[in-house]
Amino acid sequence: MAQKITIATRESPLALWQAEYVRDALESAHDGLQVELLGMTSRGDQLLDVPLSKVGGKGLFVKELETALLDGSADIAVHSMKDVPMAFPDGLGLAVICEREEPADAFVSNHYDSIEALPAGSVVGTSSLRRECQLRELRPDVTVRFLRGNVNTRLRKLDDGEYDAIILACAGLLRLEMGDRIRNRIPVAQSLPSGGQGAVGIEIRTDDHATRAMLEVLHHPATAECVTAERAVNRRLQGGCEVPIAAYAVHESSDSLWLRALVGSPDGTLVLRAEARGSTRDADALGEGVADDLLAQGAADILAAVYGR
Ligand SMILES: NCc1[nH]cc(CCC(=O)O)c1CC(=O)O
């Protein structure tokens, strides 16, 4: 049995928190196991002056880590599931999904308590088309301004006065012990989260059975069921962050899920919604059904306009 595991991780404070969480859980579950972090910078961390929707989207945060897995310099890669594309390179795959932190988006402001309380003309920072779409549907009278960078950078820009408010994931703030910055947990009906938001996933080489067995202690089946349904929506739509897409599942009982999803235009003038309930055992089919409903409502046209298909 391997007595040492190397974790490939990005170097943002949140990515390091997540990698350290995995390291600590593995070391306490397996006596004598040594776990090391291999920090690396992804293209998503370098290209900070352009929206993700313009530079090729999701894979940007995971590609360098996957290269480290494939060349053997690391054994596992720890990701925010929100940033993990649907398809994996040959020889790599997801081993486990860890317990979800709060999935909602956070309204963060030094002046106002909620989206509703913003004066007309306020400037709100986000570069997520999903957040922009839903915010503008609710408040067509506010201005959305570009905001990227890691969580700490975004908060600093807010504090510098560049924005009246910003929208972040609650999960990142809570993990970094900055929950006091959350002025308001935006109800999911107002800002439906991204598929996988708040969940951490671990990618490995698919033939590395010894490592997979050691990761099992971190697997959280209930989270994995929800994230599976959410990711099935994105997979069926074949959409990344170039289009406003949200997908969010919760358990209604131990064996049934309620999945909601939406596709929209960035300016929030067109927002298509679909939802369905289904068995946890068939989370993929649940997600595909909701995606098909969206496609039938006209999501196909939105996607075709963006991706030229
Ligand atoms: N795209 C960046 C990213 N990836 C995961 C999180 C937050 C933590 C999570 O969703 O697990 C964030 C920042 C944010 O959206 O505020």
Automatic annotation (TrEMBL):
Binds 1 dipyrromethane group covalently. The modification S-(dipyrrolylmethanemethyl)cysteine is found at C241. Pathway: Porphyrin-containing compound metabolism; protoporphyrin-IX biosynthesis; coproporphyrinogen-III from 5-aminolevulinate: step 2/4. One of its GO terms (biological process) is protoporphyrinogen IX biosynthetic process. The gene is hemC. Tetrapolymerization of the monopyrrole PBG into the hydroxymethylbilane pre-uroporphyrinogen in several discrete steps. Residues 5-212 form the Porphobilinogen deaminase N-terminal domain. Monomer. It holds the Pfam family Porphobil_deamC. It comes from Chromatocurvus halotolerans. This is Porphobilinogen deaminase. Belongs to the HMBS family.
